[in-house]
Fold these 4 entries.
Entry 1:
Amino acid sequence: MNTLQTPLHRVQGLGASHSGTGHFWRQRITALALVPLGLWFTFAMVGLAGTNEVAVLSFLAHPWNALLMAAFASILLYHMSLGLQVVVDDYVHGAGARIFCLLLIRFVVIATISTCLFALIRIAAST
Amino acid sequence: MADKPQQPGHERPLSPHLSIYRWQVTMLASITHRATGIALSVGALVLAWWLVSISNGPEGYESFMSVATTPVGLVILFGFVWSLSFHMLNGIRHLAWDMGYGFNKVTATQTGSLVYVLSLVLAVGVFAFVWTGHAGYLK
């Protein structure tokens, strides 16, 4: 590089990604949290397979199960937005299209998290 | 690199060089990790649909189950179960790499193959467990 800028000057403003290592860490921490939560979710889904609506309702209305399902759904969707962002960063090159895709992902994810949490509150209140 | 604009007619090949590289397990596992991640994004939306349908009472639950238990619904469900198994196992492989373990060329290839085998065993195992009548223990 033929430049008089020091390396420090070039990385100011958190470097070329403008976000430092925050995304990397959040993706790893949510991944780690999703291992036990994903195993619990699989245990719950297999346990509810072949039962009826009453069994599913009473399972999800239990405070611990509601809490774990809320945690699983929100962390899953957050991890999903981080992952899809990398896909957009890799394949969508125009600045406008990129910002549009990233905003769309965030809107969908926040709407879906809100929907899941509201559904769980409705289930808890209905029983 | 960006200082010198490319001459027209001399475009460099764009990464990933899928048509140039020989296919390898590590490369395939990386692509599958991303593909299963995208598939599971759809799965997350289905999870929200499932929760909403249950919160809508018996008719809502029936409407979800009538779609989910069709042959196409079951094939998609198997896809989600395998995708979750693969993404979780390969995700653990990635976390091990992040801590500096298993980066050796031979080890990375072996764990890559292992993730494919284990994820298939897990997914088929879950379906076999349900179909042999062992599921539904949360009644």
Entry 2:
Amino acid sequence: MNVTITVNGQTTTNDVEPRQLLVHHLRETLDLTGTHWGCDTSNCGACVVLMDGQPVKSCTILAAMCEGHEIRTVESLEVDGRLDPVQEGFHERHALQCGFCTPGMLMTARALLDENPDPTDHEIRTAISGAICRCTGYKNIVSAVRWAAEHEAAAEQGA
Amino acid sequence: MQTPAPFEYERATSVDGAIASLQRLGPEARIIAGGHSLLPMMKLRLASPEHLIDINDLAELAYIREDDGMIRIGALTRHVELLKSELLARRFPIFGDAERVIADPVVRNRGTIGGSLCQADAAEDLSAVCSATKAHVVIRGGEGERVVPMEDFHVGPYMTAVGAGELLTEIRLPLFPGAGSAHEKVERRAGDWAIAAASAAVWIEGGSLSQVGIALSAVGMTTIHLTRAEELLRGNAPSEELFAQAGEIASEDCSPSADGRGPIDYKRHLAGVLTHRALRRATERALQTGGVA
């Protein structure tokens, strides 16, 4: 069946099998391999992308269910060589080691800050509670999201 | 890679259209809403429907509102909306208690109350919440609607009163004076299924319990409705002693099995303690609002 989805601002139409999961559609059909395919059971959060601005686990959504919707993946964060503040925060606070969970963490953090620009550490921890980091990096991830929140607020004031 | 077996997909554009498709396609057709129970089951071949009917576009099934002396919740209402609802927080805070500990925020963006109830997993929280709050569910088919009380909704493990060619459309929570409600759950780690969970709703009028609802998750083959404990409490003034007795009944009337989440005696103990705590907190809330929600 033909499925039309807007991914990172670009509308694409592809012939997909109804059973194809969004994560595989992104990685294999659209060659957007930034989204990681992890546990396959909606537990680990590595595959989180934004669907109409809300974080969702792309291993548990069919590509066909995304027809007519807007998907944002980790590839959209950097614009013209400028990293998104959450990406800068992960860099500044050393919030990744192996990097496998990072795309999902970044998109989950981006969605959190879009909804709540000044979250408490508890709110950050709650937001990322559906994402697992096996390098035991939660402390630095929380710190990175705080860094991003503070720098976004400062940038807005400066603007 | 886990991928479902092949199936045909169609997207419903109306409730009647979804029901017509169910009837046309027969028993191998299934409704998909949030998909966070059905797709994992399809990956594991525990379910292999030949047709999926996607109802995610049916915005008319996504609402939480109060009218006619009841709260009406559309079947497509997502967990995140149940958690954020100020109306539910005021009328039935038990929903907030449960939603904070159902899966994780990302999963809660997709999963729906209708899907949770229709999955009829005994470990699922909202089935106990809806049993305790004396909910009725609206089931629509080709012949029209019927309204089924929660005690008749779950007919067995993973089995509900929703028949072939029918769709769950609405959950109705009756409003009576002096309501208080609470959900208590113990899980191994954040976002996990319950080891045991207890839902309690009380209605206090003139200092006594005019009505009581208690249900347990994860300690039996289906959601357990504690009718014996409800009968014990009804008509009496709420007290710690009575709540402790209700907890003892919960321990006796549940039927947990031993698994990775714990042995039977531990789960029976938890069912009792959580029932006691849920009744205590529900009562505190009923008294705080002075009987006017």
Entry 3:
Amino acid sequence: MTPDTLETLLLSHLKKNARLSIQDLVDMTRATAKEIEEILDNLEKSGAIAQYTTIINEDLLKKSPSLIRALIEVSVRPEKKTGYDAVAKRISAHPNVVSHYLLSGNYDFLVIVEGSTLQEISQFVSELASLENVRSTGTHFILKKYKESGVHFLSEESENRLAIVP
Amino acid sequence: MNHPFSKRLENIPPSGIRKFFDLVAHSKDIISLGVGEPDFSTPWAIREEAISTLERGTTAYTSNSGLPECREAIATYLKNSFNCSYNPANEMILTFGVSEAVDIAFRTILNEGDEVILFEPCYVCYAPLVTLAGGHVVTIDTSKNHFLPPIDQLKKAISPLTKAVLICSPNNPTGAVIPSDILQEIAALSIKHGFWVITDEVYAELSYDKPFVSYASLEGIKEKTILLNGFSKAFAMTGWRLGYVCSSQDFISRALKIHQYSALCAPTVAQYAAIEALNHPESVVAMKQSYQARRNLFVKRLNQIGLPTLLPEGAFYCFPSIMGTGLSSEEFAVQLLKKTNVAVVPGSVFGQGGEGFIRCCYATDLTLLKEAVLRIHSFLKKIG
């Protein structure tokens, strides 16, 4: 297996389960621990692997953190020299912003924010709307999660196979 | 009336393992390594095509041998993927899974007393279906030959009554893949002695270490070859029940007589969905990659905890030896289930050479596979 193929394979396994140990990856790919560690070190150092994260279905938590999530469409005036990036940097820096994309279409940015109360989100929206380059915003609160990062939250994929089939 | 039921059925022994299966069926919260199917749902595009077929109301019978466009898609797929050439017009029948294809293959060629050679351990349906078709089963044990057909023993087993030899590669339950040199030797014997070769290739897409060689792609054997394949395993379509049988026109015209009266046609919705399945080879690639990673991890760890296991080259099963425990495969499976809630299939279910082994399916969530290994390890320590 070439290092490139191994890298693609490791990323594909880790995207599905970031908690796989080096030993798991060794056993799954039949590469050596040294080869795997070298590839992951490089990907982490370059920032290509930005973070190992966790996907949570809050509905199933015993003690719900009552997190409120909203998608905000933002139209902005890009700046002369820096275009969208300078204003994007200011918005992204806000602690409530969890994801932020530049899009084609009717508006410029899609900003995903999280907060623990409606007030917190609305406070953020007011701050956002008052930024000099922001022309307009449109806020959509998320009511229910069906799928996130490839993981289904509906019961469709649950086990329905017979336990024994010869 | 002296015989209210078929006498042939009496020649099929009742399954000795029934009690074990019932035990599993009534257990809760088990980690099952006993399944025989993918752990993926049928890919989205295939399901959507089926829904659309229903919405259009396209639900009538198809021709007996199956939708022409589905047969054409399969013929193109067989040519492109495995270099097998079959005319979709008259060398193919779509069936209710490979199971029906096995049944009609035997019923098309067997006369009372004809012998069929099976390499065991093998899938459980072959021997009973030979018996029901009036044939006589001759078995060859592959367990001492890395679960591959031992050609010297095959030569000894061939008699004037030998009508057919059945091979299944990649294999259920062992995962063994028959290399092309052994296929060539079987082909040479088929040509020399004139017996049929029935080749069950339902796991053909799941060959991990080398490109799969189809027996049906060999030169000069078409007239005596019956190729069986289907959508269950590669496309995660087990419940859709769609398989196919390909052979010469002479065979197919006769097999069609059985299929048209006993089945009429394969499920229509499944046939439309299958055409869509063949348009999405990428879904097979992703599933295959996932099985391969799990195979690598699971087999390595079984060996580490003291269950000698050959690395299976295909399908999604491995066949660890439990001989070191001194238990029979059924005792092992029952005790493992009762003590650790892990279900496996005793090797004895799969015939001669299966005793002393268990079949584990690794098409199960990786976290559960890792947990299953830990539980089997603790079980081995307790009984050791």
Entry 4:
Amino acid sequence: MTEDNIDEESLRDLLARTSALPRTIEPPADAWTAIRASIDKPEAQYAARKSFWRTTNARNNPAFLAAAAVLLVAGSSAITAVVIGRQANRQPSPVAASVQPRAAGPGTLAEFTLVENGYIRTANQLAEVLRSEESKLSPETVTKLQESLRIIDAAILEARNALAADPANSAIVEMLSGSYEQKLDLLRRTTEMARS
Amino acid sequence: MKRISLPFAVLALLGPLASGSVDAQTKAIRGQALNPDGAIRIYSLVGTVRIVGWNRDSVAVRGVLGKGNSLHMGGGRTGMKMFVEGMNERNPQPAHIEVSVPTRAKVWIKTATADVDVSGVTGSLDIYVVGGTIRVTGNPADVNAEAIDGAILITGSPGWVRAKSASGAVSLKGSSRDVTLSTVSGAISVAGGRFERAKFETVTGNIGFGGVFERGGAVNFDTHSGAIDLGIPGDAPGDFDVVSIAGPITNKLTSQRPMAGRYGRGAELSTSNANGGTRISIRSFKGPVTLRRIG
């Protein structure tokens, strides 16, 4: 299996499945009733609160304001105590940290497949350009360059197989993207050096 | 007014500066005025190129040119070019040149197999070598060094560094606020400096790091199968997030033990040193990762 035919089949399958999906779907019949009810509910609560402030004129009552101040001080002190206590007791989590991709990008095999086709296409184009400029490089350099490309391809293939066995592993996707980026970068740099 | 073509004008300008000798090795001594922060571009295929910063607003070239080589220079006070032209491009003879440039000059160098050695320049450096070795000593504002199979060795504290090689080794002895070192199979070695934003990546090459991370920084280590050996002092801050798909993780820095990976294999480690404050992300497919305390 080569890296060129790994994805085309998956891509075709994905495209076929997405094209079969309807362009739009209607919401359930009772959706609007539920939405309107949830919108009306806060309005009614707000109206009730507003009427309390208007009718009681509590803002001008010194006893009410004093009670509110005591509640505020006691409440904030309690919250501060709880937060400080939590920080003091904080222990390193025994669970492995959630691994977030360091740059926004695909996180699964299905998402990566689309991106990967772009990588493969660009790499093939650059390799073609480099082949036409190869005579400008020394045979020793060409040999070492080909060896480096073989190393990257082997790493890509190994990571690709691991991802096929574990399609939701975002860490492998991240590493695979990194290997492709390195391959493109090496091809670009070598082409530019050979050209000038 | 009679017009002349651009190539002819360039030849007319550079012609009188050519060394002219085609018999054997010749010595070359040249000079030209250049602003303290002027730009200079140097092109020489084979041999050695040595750049030395000096406190003058001029460029001086001294060297020995191989048989059939000629040295061409041209330009003005804000920017100039020089190149060594061989009689036979398919079989170029080595030229060994030393160029003194204003300390703050912006220097651009391109060679095939010629080794490049730069020291005492505080301006910016752009160096492209196919198979030679690049050595930079001092504190340039920024360094962009690229090789295919040559080594890149930097000693000093550039403000910004990008160094890339395929099979050559890359080393940095010093500090930098912003650094990216990248190889395929070459080893990466970083020693003794302070780093704020950094990225170290290989495919099969080993990565050895001994230094300090600035609080608030972000540092990434990536490899497929190379070993990552990371050593920091006990009081250096760091929040480590380590993931290895199939390789082992050894933690000799903190008491936290690596755990089995969430995907049923490999290992993961999340730990902090010295109250953390710097995000350090380490990704390895199958190379071993070791965190340890130094100093």
